[in-house]
Design a protein that fits this description.
There is one protein chain. The protein has 500 residues and is of the alpha+beta class. The chain has two domains: 274 residues, Beta Barrel (Butyryl-CoA Dehydrogenase, subunit A, domain 2); 188 residues, Up-down Bundle (Butyryl-CoA Dehydrogenase, subunit A, domain 3). Helices cover 49% and strands 16% of the residues. It has a six-stranded mixed β-sheet. Strand 6 and strand 7 form a beta hairpin. The longest helix has 40 residues. The model has no long low-confidence stretch (mean pLDDT 96). Bound molecules: flavin-adenine dinucleotide. Flavin-adenine dinucleotide binds next to strand 5, strand 7 and helix 15.
């Protein structure tokens, strides 16, 4: 397994194809260091003896010890551990740990490539290709990002109907050695600091969309790929240092006549499997949210409770109500993920059919619980911000900059007027407002809220998944029976359960 130092050294050798604000930058540019330190935590923590259970796994391909972020879930325990590892690591960096896209994309393609080969009866070799790619990914302990979201052009048009054929990433040409792709994936987190980019479709596809059913992996600096990155760093501080400085990046990834050799292609034209791949990545990713969102909830809870203490209002009943609400959202999100792990199996749910075996035997979390958890906690971000805003009062928005606390003309007075709770030092109270300002009033804070809301799919996507997979008919029959209406069935639900 690699160290954080090896990871950064690997990035330093990659070709320059990352554009930031009009400049071509190195992957190890100072601007990306906060992000590298955040992902670096996944290497540092996996090396600690006390984290071996949670942060490492045994590869089912080689039998070797690997970082859990490169693992394919073999059982329920693996699903539980991924959720708990994600929560633990996100707590350490105070937000997104940024390495889950690779594990979620790998688990999706691992299953879908197997199913596509099965249907093609030996015509394709996607699964073996993917296993070769995965073996190297695991051995070299690489960071992967997952490029799913296309620019999508006119939202009312399907891929093949778009006036710009590249509005969704597509196969432009097939050659005997591989495929040539074009298009643009957007909002791709950590692509600018990833070794490998996993590309897969964004939505369900029709036969005429078959050129859009494409999944492959290329290094982040591959010929024919350009990245335009936005980097989300907090305002630097000279005097009042933070305990940990998180960072994140998101890229537009432009594929321009990009050649991908067949051994790196895992789907090419199988439109039904393209849609399945989109859904499965979203499912694994929503399961990851059941680890990261509770960790973000832990930080929000800490901020709300400390904010109340700094304001000396922590014993007031309205504060108790708000803290209780934060705990409920956080732990219901976690509980949904826990249940999704516990009900995990090597099957997927097909509406109208029920659970069917899927993939070569690796474990897939339960879809209803992944989706309800992500939707509940994703939509709650604005309410959580409202609670923090309420408890904090206005000071979080107008707290003076750090140098005003250093300046002899203003520092002493500012510290004196910062004091609220008599039992906490003014210095700690000031440091708390600086942190809450980072978390609520910075550009990064706004970006994180939008990421928490839309990342993994907007709430409407979860609502569609929940309502198409939930057995609403059985519930209607149950109520018809209880109400004494025609067509009622007292056993409707238990029959379904027994069938499973
Ligand atoms: C910070 C951040 C990080 C992200 N990281 C990643 C990543 O690493 N990898 C990745 O692949 N993606 C990533 N995403 C993308 C994320 O998954 C998408 O933002 C999300 O799926 C919504 O897609 P969109 O942004 O294109 O929104 P849109 O599709 O533009 O949605 C806007 C609105 O239009 C509605 N709408 C769209 N289409 C239709 C339709 N056909 N009919 C009716 N209504 C419609 C939506 O419901 C929504 O209300 C990230 C997003 C953010 C904000």
């Amino acid at each position: 397994m690699r160290t954080k130092k090896d990871y950064i050294k690997g990035l330093s050798k990659m070709k320059r194809n990352i554009y930031y604000d009009g400049q071509l930058i190195d992957r190890t540019d100072e601007l990306q260091m906060d992000c590298l330190n955040t992902i670096g935590t996944t290497y540092d923590e996996a090396a600690k003896p006390e984290n071996q259970e949670l942060c490492t796994a045994t590869s089912h391909l080689t039998g070797e010890k690997i970082n859990r972020f490169t693992h394919i879930h073999q059982n329920k325990e693996d699903l539980h551990k991924k959720q708990d590892m994600t929560r633990m690591l996100c707590q350490k960096v105070g937000g997104c740990i940024q390495r889950c896209m690779g594990i979620d994309g790998s688990n999706a393609i691992y299953n879908v490539s197997f199913e596509a080969d099965k249907v093609k009866k030996g015509e394709t070799n996607y699964h073996e290709n993917f296993k070769k790619w995965l073996t190297r990914f695991q051995k070299e302990d690489l960071v992967g990002c997952c490029a799913q979201t296309d620019v999508k052009g006119d939202r009312m048009l399907r891929p093949a109907d778009q006036p710009n054929p590249g509005a969704y990433v597509r196969i432009k040409e097939r050659t005997k050695d591989g495929i040539i792709v074009e298009g643009c994936k957007v909002h791709i987190s950590e692509a600018s600091v990833a070794d490998e980019v996993l590309v897969l479709p964004t939505r369900a596809l029709r036969p005429e969309d078959k050129d859009y059913a494409v999944a492959f992996a290329v290094p982040g600096d591959w010929e024919g790929l350009k990245q335009v990155v936005t980097i989300h760093n907090l305002r630097p501080r000279d005097h009042y240092k933070r305990g940990f400085v998180p960072g994140a990046t998101d890229s537009y990834m432009i594929f321009d006549n990009c050649f991908v050799p067949w051994e790196r292609v895992f789907l090419a034209g199988e439109y039904q499997h393209g849609g399945a791949c989109a859904l499965l990545f979203a499912l694994f990713h929503r399961h990851s949210y059941s680890g990261c969102k509770p960790a973000i909830g832990d930080v929000i809870m800490g901020m709300a409770a400390l904010g109340a203490e700094v304001n000396n209002i922590h014993k007031q009943s309205h504060v108790r109500e708000k803290l209780a609400e934060l705990i409920m959202t956080t732990e219901l999100g976690y509980a949904a993920g826990y249940t999704a792990s516990d009900l995990g199996k090597a099957e997927v749910y097909i509406p109208g059919v029920g659970f069917v075996p899927y993939g070569p035997g690796s474990f897939i979390p339960n879809s209803i619980y992944c989706n309800v958890g992500r939707c509940l906690s994703g939509e709650a971000v604005w309410r959580e911000a409202e609670i923090l805003c309420d408890i904090a009062g206005g000071v979080v928005a107008t707290f003076p900059h750090e140098k005003d606390f250093i300046n002899p003309a203003t520092g002493e007075a500012l510290l004196k007027y910062t004091k609220r709770n008599p039992n906490m030092s003014s210095e700690d109270q000031a440091q708390f407002w600086r942190f809450l300002g980072d978390a609520m009033c910075s550009a990064t804070a706004g970006i994180h809220n939008i990421g928490s809301y839309h990342g993994g799919g907007s709430p409407i996507m979860e609502q569609i998944a929940i309502t198409t997979q939930y057995d609403i008919e059985s519930r209607k029959k149950l109520v018809k029976y209880i109400a004494g209406m025609s067509g009622g069935d007292r056993e409707a639900l238990s029959k379904k359960k027994a069938k499973k």
